[in-house]
Write a structure and sequence with these properties.
Layout (H helix, E strand, L loop, with lengths): L2 E3 L4 H4 L13 H6 L4 E2 L2 H7 L3 E3 L5 E4 L4 E2 L1 H9 L3 E7 L5 E8 L2 H8 L16 E3 L5 E3 L7 E7 L4 H5 L1 H10 L5 E7 L3 H10 L5 E4 L2 H5 L7 E5 L5 E6 L5 H12 L1
Parallel strand pairs: 4-7, 10-11, 11-12
Antiparallel strand pairs: 1-3, 2-6, 4-5, 6-7, 8-9, 10-13, 13-14
Helix pairs in contact: 7-10
């Protein structure tokens, strides 16, 4: 059966609430959402990717209660000026999606990812960064090693979902010339707090500029750089096969 999928872009996941629906909209929209529950970040991880069957496509609304057709909804999502809020029934079936305007901070972050993704075979952008534990990494000094990079942020459900697979990847290549770097858009303090409860074995750096330098278009993005400093893999979005995909590529480059 054909299914429709929602792409979890940066604009969608940055502002997902962790609270159940409580009369926060006007009377008309609240009536449409009666009996439904707003998905929390944890629910997004559990249900990712968010999907629904064609026969049960949810209702689409703007925050002011305006009902949208599927075509209108898709058109507005493409503008990157809205984030999506999902509402489900007791069976975790998506029954409604509300589009809310992005805040200024989110719009500015989206503006920083305007550069085109780097093609396979191109030289990777140079970088010199310091991780949250004070360790420094210079791309020039890392030539001769395979560099594995994960672009992510804490409130990104598909980013969090793939952490166990990425930890497994680190364990697989712990004795090899491979360096694993996590470039996160969160602050150092937020990363330290999150990682205490959620182990993620990469070396984590709080960055924003490199999101644009690498032409990142969505989160998570996984990149592998070969020993000569060239892009060998560039995958956008959460994948169930990320471990095998990256393991095969790393083995090829070692």
């Amino acid at each position: 059966m054909k299914r429709l999928y929602i792409l979890l872009s940066l604009s969608i996941v940055l502002f997902i609430s962790c609270k159940e629906h409580s009369n926060e909209y006007d009377e008309v929209l609240n009536k449409e959402l009666k009996g439904l529950t707003k998905l929390s970040t944890e629910d997004m991880v559990r249900l990712s990717p968010i999907k629904w069957q064609k026969e049960t496509t949810p209702l689409f609304f703007l925050k002011d209660g305006t009902k949208l057709t599927t075509a209108q909804f898709n058109e507005k999502v493409q503008t990157n000026t809205y984030h999506q809020v999902f509402f489900v029934n007791a069976k975790d079936q998506v029954k409604a999606v509300v589009l809310e305007s992005q805040g200024d901070q989110n719009r500015k972050l989206n503006q920083r990812i305007s550069k085109q993704p780097i093609d396979i075979g191109e030289l990777a952008p140079e970088f010199e960064v310091t991780d949250i534990n004070g360790n420094s990494y210079n791309s020039k000094d890392l030539l001769g090693k395979v560099i594995v990079i994960n672009f992510w942020f804490i409130n990104c459900p598909p980013c969090r979902k793939e952490i166990p697979d990425l930890n497994k990847l680190v364990d697989t290549f712990k004795d090899d010339e491979v360096i694993f770097l996590g470039f996160a858009t969160d602050s150092k303090e937020k990363l330290q707090k999150f990682l205490k409860k959620n182990p993620f074995s990469y070396h984590h750096i709080s960055v924003n500029k490199l999101v644009n330098d690498f032409g990142v278009k969505g989160f998570p993005t996984n990149i592998i750089i070969d020993k000569k400093g060239k892009i060998s893999l560039n995958k956008i979005g959460g994948r169930d096969d990320i471990y095998e995909l990256m393991k095969t590529k790393i083995e090829e480059l070692l």
